[in-house]
Design goal:
By secondary structure, chain A is an all-beta fold. In chain A, 0% of the residues lie in helices and 51% in strands. The chains are: A mainly beta (113), B mainly beta (115).
């Protein structure tokens, strides 16, 4: 069975500081990996996805993530945080396209002045 | 881009009544939709997978008779919470897979409060 672990429930950063949100996955087959952002009382917006092409994936709003199979990781990074990046971030995995997504527990990114 | 429209955005209902939540794919055909439930400050938990023209597949522990799912067309899936109770209060979100990019588009969510 597939699973996702987001060890950090909350990550505080100063504005303009680099951001790293950690995600590790577990699966017995090839996976697709996703990062979503959620603002309060809203649905999820896709930041980026890995679907077995390039291991370094660039997304929207300056975010990127690197798929590392040997470490079973897909950490989300951004060189410089903005106040507007403060939100809840979810890592998710699916075993192939079209199959159900399994979400991590989420990481709240707090951006401070 | 592909859009999933979810309505209503929020609803308050009395205990014992039923509430219907709709999700429509606006510019693509969704043969499969996924229904999630999210408690405050928690992750999304998959409730069921809705398949057009056939019965939904429910996750373990989800009551089929309480959470009725209908996917009668390629653009509409509905979730009906029957005989709602305060413990059903939650944020419900639908999602659809958008081929061929293998991305998932989410509705904006429905905040259900049962009083």
């Amino acid at each position: 069975a597939q699973s996702v672990t987001q060890l950090d429930s909350q990550v505080p950063v100063f504005e303009e500081a680099p951001v790293e949100l950690r995600c590790n996955y577990s699966s017995s087959v090839s996976v697709y990996l996703f990062w979503y952002v959620q603002y309060p009382n809203q649905g999820l917006q896709l930041l980026l996805k890995y679907t077995s092409a390039a291991t370094l994936v660039k997304g929207i709003n300056g975010f990127e993530a690197e798929f590392k199979k040997s470490e079973t990781s897909f950490h989300l990074t951004k060189p410089s945080a903005h106040m507007s990046d403060a939100a809840e971030y979810f890592c998710a995995v699916s075993e192939g396209g079209g199959n159900k997504l399994t979400f991590g527990t989420g990481t709240q990114l707090k951006v401070e002045l | 881009g592909a859009v999933v429209s979810q309505h209503p955005s929020w609803v308050i209902c009395k205990s014992g009544t039923s509430v219907k939540i709709e999700c429509r794919s606006l510019d693509f055909q969704a043969t499969t939709m996924f229904w999630y439930r999210q408690f405050p400050k928690q992750s999304l938990m998959l409730m069921a997978t809705s398949n057009e023209g056939s019965k939904a597949t429910y996750e373990q522990g989800v009551e089929k008779d309480k959470f009725l799912i209908n996917h009668a067309s390629l653009t509409l899936s509905t979730l009906t919470v029957t005989s709602a109770h305060p413990e059903d209060s939650s944020f419900y979100i639908c999602s659809a897979n958008v081929p061929p990019q293998d991305g998932y588009t989410f509705g904006s969510g429905t905040r259900l409060t049962v009083v």
